[in-house]
Amino acid sequence: MSDGQAVSVQTQQEAPTEPLSIRDGSTVEPGAAGSVTERDRIGGEGTGSIDTGGEPAETDSGSDTTTDSTTSGLAVAEINADAEGRDGENLNDEYVVFENSGTETLDLSGWTVADDADHTYTIPDGVMLAPGATVTLYTGSGTATDSELYWGSGSPIWNNDGDTVIVTTNEGDRVLEESY
Questions:
Q1: Predicted TM-score (pTM) of this structure
Q2: How far is CA 133 from the centre of its chain?
């Protein structure tokens, strides 16, 4: 690997990782259906897209983004990194919209949203996202609702010239990584 490159280890099922115990894991037949989950990332800065084997879906946000579906069904529907006017004076016009593109309700309690600089927001307990529903995470402050969350940051989070939205479950599994 050259400097900055990474290898993503992805599987359809949990498997033993010790070299001699790998053969003890259950097999997945070629062509089997099922989503792929990243199990480990070796090297790099952790900013590459995770290839989940699905086709990226286009967004209608007006920005150049794509959506990586994962086993969770969580997707980025829109990223507005460049707030109207001065970003630091209009923090609630800087936001990320998440959508549940899956078929089951997602319990987002304790999941984290982070950027390349490791600014991290923890989703509060009780946040549920029904299939097809969206929730918007605003950088600034406000009163949370079923469809709106507020980071509470006093300064911008998302870089106007590009950044990465990283979502991790409360169990530490990275389920979404979206660069723009």
A1: 0.62
A2: 16
